[in-house]
Amino acid sequence: MLTPAFDLSQDPDFLTIAIRVPYARVSEFDVYFEGSDFKFYAKPYFLRLTLPGRIVENGSEQGSYDADKGIFTIRLPKETPGQHFEGLNMLTALLAPRKSRTAKPLVEEIDASEIPEEVVDDEEFDWEIEQTPYEEVSESALNPQCHYGFGNLRSGVFQRLQDELNDVIDIKNPDFTPAAERRQKRLAAELAKFDPDHYLADFFEDEAIEQILKYNPWWIDKYSKMKAFLEKSQEEENHAALVSFSEEEKYQLRKFVNKSYLLDKKACRQVYYSLIDILLAYCYETRVTEGEKNVESAWNIRKLSPTLCWFETWTNVHEIMVSFGRRVLCYPLYRHFKLVVKACSDTIKILQLGKSAVLKCLLDIHKIFQENDPAYILNDLYISDYCVWIQKVKSKKLAALAEALKEVSLTKAQLGLELEELEAAALLVQEEETALKAAHSVSGQQTLCSSSEASDSEDSDSTVSSGNEDSDSDSEQDELKDSPSETVNSLQGPFLEESSALLIVDGGVCKNTAIQESDANQGKPLASSQPLGVSGPLIEELGEQLKTTVQVSEPKSTTAVNHSNMQERDGRQTPND
Asked: Annotated Gene Ontology MF terms (predicted)?
């Protein structure tokens, strides 16, 4: 027999059951309902439901079949009109068989609050037992295997699957590692993994973090609608209908095997605490990936949850938050304290939405682990049992758990990673670097100003010196031109013509005048210069002055030309001496 896909809905007077039976023999089908029992058969499909409320056969029931979609739709009247049937989307629980009607069941499941503090056993003690000498043994020998898994109901799993599970959990040899030792090793591993540079990088460069914080997962919209609904109606029984399941999720629910869990008070408390731990990791993963799962999703969830990777046990809600905060700042890509606070806020909203929202999250985790090898082992140890167990939990208990989580205040100092000291030191270094940069910029500006002033002063000095040189050369030329010496003025010959030509060259007017005139006057007698006995020394003195003048005021090329002309002139004047 196949279990068909089905869906339940309700209005104040009727319960509607839609059953999808493609390729069924619709000509032969049976429907039976009485009280809280409902049965449907259409070969090869069979469906048996245990309803959360009672229905009655009074002639107003209706049924129809859509041949195109292959869906039977059956409307059944409620025994008490107006009654609200809670948990119609908890499909696994609805598939469970009705409880035994015997007067005294072999195993009875009772609420934890009903467990008496002291149980008195009236059965007579059998004194005739075999006695053995007392031998002192260690605690590990008394309990060689440690327990873990949902409600600490598992043990010995890793002895058989040690090779496969080394990549799933962080603890080595969990079957023989007690809870206290697990915690010590976990804390040491977190301290060794913490990277101050990575943390400070995310602390100062938080653009990506702010973008993640702005993302709104699906439960944000549902929570807002729930708050608006409660403000209007002041009723809490119908807000679970805000959360619906997809066809894939419904298929998952039908595949689970229904179980009953006998948990004592301590184990029950551990189950609730571990649920918070798992939801925190899931909320972080959903937010940082913005709802788009990737190959790292399974790693993120199990790494951030000490329940899943260290088989951790808890005593209060605060230590769950501390552990989660430490692991967020040690392992994933984005390590920021704001993400810890945001994940806590998201978890509170999910718990307040009720068990439907919690179940939806658990189904998503189950799918992620099922598609990852070898993380699927964690489904067998924890998630599958949570998906079945949560369907029977009262939403009021989850709301109380949300209030307990809301009252927890977490600070950076409580994480034990010296975050405040790191941030203070980093801010101090940043201020020093800013001050140094400011000082360097000021000194650079001052250096530029001083260098510009020095260059300006050098330019002015060079201008003044060049002006002085020009004035000196001009004065020397004027003296040479306007000298009142009768001896010089009385010289009549080619030398004066040459000197005047040289002065013209100094002024830059003509370059070849001296050469042309000297060539033209070659061979002419110097009659007026012969009577003067001192004409030779005077001419030499005048020649030296002319050389000095030309060297100071002319460029190299001009000076070289004039120097050659002077040599030619001296060569011509030598016989006259």
From this structure: unfolded protein binding
The pLDDT of residue 485 is 45
Q: At residue 328, what is the residue type?
A: V
Please give the Cα distance from 305 to 382 (Å, whole number). Answer: 12
What's the pLDDT at 576? Answer: 43
Which is it for strands 62-66 and 29-42: parallel, antiparallel or unpaired?
A: unpaired
What is the C-alpha to C-alpha distance for residues 166 and 168, in angstroms, rounded to an integer? 6
Residues 553 and 478: beta-carbon distance below 8 Å: no
Enumerate long-range contacts of 367-370, CB under 8 Å, 24 or more apart: 367/252, 368/293, 368/297, 368/298, 368/301, 369/298, 369/301, 369/302
pLDDT per position as a tens digit, 517-564: 444 444 443 333 444 444 455 556 656 666 555 454 444 444 444 444
DSSP result, 274-293: HHHHHHHHHHHHHHHTTT--
At position 426, the amino acid (one-letter code) is A
Would you list the domain boundaries of the chain? 2-95, 158-419
Within 10 Å of residue 20's Cβ, how many Cβ atoms?
Answer: 16
Identify the CATH number of the domain defined by range 2-95: 2.60.40.790
Q: Would you give the end-to-end CA distance of the chain in angstroms?
A: 148
Does the pLDDT value for residue 463 go beyond 70?
no
Distance of CA 416 to the CA centre of its chain: 22
Bridge partner list, 37: 34, 50
Instruction: List C-alpha distances in Å: 27 to 43, 68, 94, 260.
Output: 10, 15, 27, 37
Where b means 16+ CB within 10 Å and e means fewer, 247-286 reads eebbebbbebeeeeeebeeebbbbbbbbbbbbbbbbbbbb
Cβ–Cβ under 8 Å, residues 170 and 189: yes
48's enclosing H/E stretch is strand 45-55
Q: What angle do CA 538, 501, 566 make, to 5 degrees?
A: 55
- Amino acid 30 reads D
